[in-house]
Structure formats: structure tokens, C-alpha cells
Amino acid sequence: MFSISLDERLHIAPITTPRRILDLGTGTGIWAVEIAEKFPNASVIGNDLSAIQPRWVPPNLSFEVDDIEAEWNYKIPFDFIHSRHLDYSIANWDRLIKQCFRFTRPGGWCEWQECEYNLYSEDGTFIENNAVDRWVKGLIEAATEMGRVASPGLITEKYAREAGFVNITHEVHKIPMTPWAKETKYKEIGAFNLAGILENLEGVSLALYTRVLGWSPEEVYAFLAQVRKEFKNPGAHGVCFVLKKIPWKRNI
């Protein structure tokens, strides 16, 4: 979904011959594998709390199981630090971005791709306070109660400037919630988005709604049935948008 929105680009920052690349919150490791193949002379590290990455990877790529919010112990700084879709997983964005600055070499770049989850539609078909809208607002409320930021795309630029990065710009890419769009690119993005949402709906919702918001499991399951139904409504053209951060450059 992210790759399609970027027209298959792996990054937006103008890197050409990086020697060291760090992928924060690498997840399944797909991006790290692809960037290692693109830059075979670079040493690439993918970092995540879960060891769910593939075993067979390019020789210049290694994976680490670690907490990116803990103190980093790398001996050599990086030419490029990349992250996307961390959402509520970070407790202290300010500290994390300052740590990124310390471990980016002078002249190096950071790129963050994060979401802003206030849903809207451009044609008025997505009705406020419907099941999907209430579901998203519930997730945001639960994240806030936990001291987490559900939509970090709007705050990372501020922390990047305070950390000392320069040349900070961003691109805004529309992400349809479902495949309602007529244009092939956005229809495909919406299809991937909907498939991912429906597959992970309970996993994303249960803990936050029961442990944080105080709902019973039965209440959550009943509510998610409404959410699924609303997501499958082809007449609701809901859109969230993603802020693509480019470049966070360290000059000194």
C-alpha cells in the first residue's frame, strides 16, 4: 500500500550511495530486503521487537530484535534512517527523533512515513459518527489514554526541527479506506487497505477497547460487526491521508 502510494519508490529522500541504512520497526522486513537489494554495497539493519523477519535475505542485511526507544549502542552513524507506520507503538516521539539525529551522520537523511487518522470524504458520502468513524475515534481515545499518539504524522515535523534536522518537507498522499476510487492506483490502494483492516480488525481493537476503554468483549464483537458492514458499504468514500516525510537532513 505504501509502495503503491509512492509509485513504487522505496524512499523519497535523495540518497544515492549510502553506506549504512537503519530501518526502524522493520516488521516483516520487506522494505529492508528491498532497500538492501537496491544498495548492495550498503550495510542495512532492520530493527524490531518481534523476530518475524525472513531467514533468507541479502548478504548485506541483518535483523536485530531490540526496542528502538531504548538507548542505541551503534558505533557508527547512519547515512539513512527510515521508518513508517509506527503509529501508537512509540511512547516518546521527541526522544526517539533526537536519538535519530545523534545517529545520523552529517549530510545524512531520515525519512518517516506516518498516518493521520481523522477520516473524511471529498464528496460528502462518508458520514460523521458512523460505525467506522466511531471505531477510529475510539482507537485514538484509547491511544491518548495510554499516553501514545495515534496520528504521529502531524507531530513528527515539529520534533525533527527541534532535534536539529533541516530541509524538512513533506508530501501528502491520500489513502482510500476501501476500493471505491475510479483511478486504478487509488482503487488498488483501497483494496489493500480494506483487506488489511478487515483481517486485523479484532487484533487492533480488542485490547484497546477492553483494557483501556472498559468495554466487554461481547460489546466489542457486536460493535465490530457494525464496523465491518460499514467498511463494505461501496457508497461511503472515506479517506485518511498519510504524510510522507522528506528529508530530515543533518548538516553538522
Describe the structure.
- This protein has 252 residues and is an alpha/beta fold.
- 36% of the residues lie in helices and 23% in strands.
- It is built from seven helices and eight strands, in the order H-E-H-E-E-E-H-E-H-H-E-H-H-E-E.
- It has helices at residues 2-5, 30-38, 93-102, 131-145, 156-163, 184-212, 217-231; strands spanning 20-24, 43-48, 61-65, 78-84, 104-120, 169-176, 239-246, 248-249.
- Strands 1, 2, 3, 4, 5, 6, 7 and 8 form an eight-stranded mixed β-sheet that branches.
- Strand 1, helix 2 and strand 2 form a beta-alpha-beta unit.
- The longest helix has 29 residues, at 184-212.
- The two termini are 35 Å apart.
- The model has no long low-confidence stretch (mean pLDDT 90).
SSE topology:
Elements: H1 2-5, E1 20-24, H2 30-38, E2 43-48, E3 61-65, E4 78-84, H3 93-102, E5 104-120, H4 131-145, H5 156-163, E6 169-176, H6 184-212, H7 217-231, E7 239-246, E8 248-249
Parallel strand pairs: 1-2, 1-4, 2-3, 4-5
Antiparallel strand pairs: 5-7, 5-8, 6-7
Helix pairs in contact: 3-5, 4-6, 6-7
Low-pLDDT stretches are: none
**What portion of residues is helical?**
25-40%
Q: Quickly count the helices.
A: 7
What is the CA-atom radius of gyration, in angstroms?
Answer: 19 Å
Order of helices and strands: HEHEEEHEHHEHHEE
Mean of pLDDT? 90
Strand content: 15-25%
Task: State the end-to-end CA separation.
Answer: 35 Å
Number of strands: 8
Shape: globular
Strand count, sense and barrel status of the largest sheet are:
8 strands, mixed
Question: From the helix content, strand content and strand pairing, which structural class follows?
Answer: alpha/beta
